[in-house]
Amino acid sequence: MINKNLIIERLKELSDASWQEQLWTGKILGQQSSFVEAVCGLFDDAGLARALESGRLATSYSAELCRLTNKLSELVALIADGDDPSFVLKHTKMPAIRLTSAALLTTFLLSVENNAGHAVRQEKLAKP
């Protein structure tokens, strides 16, 4: 099972350069994150990697969502764990990571909305 709220939160972080600058460099009092935390939160903690590898993502979501998830996974793998935040923020792959994260966020939100609407419709049809 995937954690939809965590997926949304981490995709927002990975798609927003301004938020990354503040959060990854410790400019917000009491809040700190990093590229590695965002990626691990998305793929590991939220269960996205397991869902993708097991095929559950493909059976529950669109081919486009799966394609974007694979693309993002490939892109984030190009940045080494433990790199300095200022280096990561300026990495040549970060613009593509941000764009792919934003596209995946939009696709995911639409899928969740469509699935929720489908579930409500099914529930209404099931009621006598």
Features:
128 residues, mainly alpha, disordered C terminus, single chain, 8 helices
Give a written overview of the molecule.
The protein has one domain. The chain has helices at residues 4-15, 17-24, 35-45, 48-54, 56-60, 63-76, 85-90, 94-126. The model is unreliable at 117-128 (pLDDT under 50). The chain has 8 helices and no strands. It is mainly α and 128 residues long.
Summarize the model shown:
The chain has one domain. The protein is 75% helix and 0% strand.
Q: What is the topology?
A:
Blueprint: H1 4-15, H2 17-24, H3 35-45, H4 48-54, H5 56-60, H6 63-76, H7 85-90, H8 94-126
Helix pairs in contact: 1-3, 1-8, 6-8
Number of β-strand runs: 0
Main pleated sheet = none
- Taken together, the total number of domains comes to 1
Mean of residue pLDDT values: 89
Report the helical percentage: over 70%
Give me the strand/helix succession. Answer: HHHHHHHH
User: Which band does the percent of strand residues land in?
Assistant: under 5%
Low-confidence runs: 117-128
Please report the number of helical segments: 8
The radius of gyration computed from the alpha-carbon positions, rounded to a whole number of angstroms, is 16 Å
Shape: globular
Q: Structural class of the helix and strand makeup?
A: mainly alpha
- The end-to-end distance, rounded to whole angstroms, is 30 Å
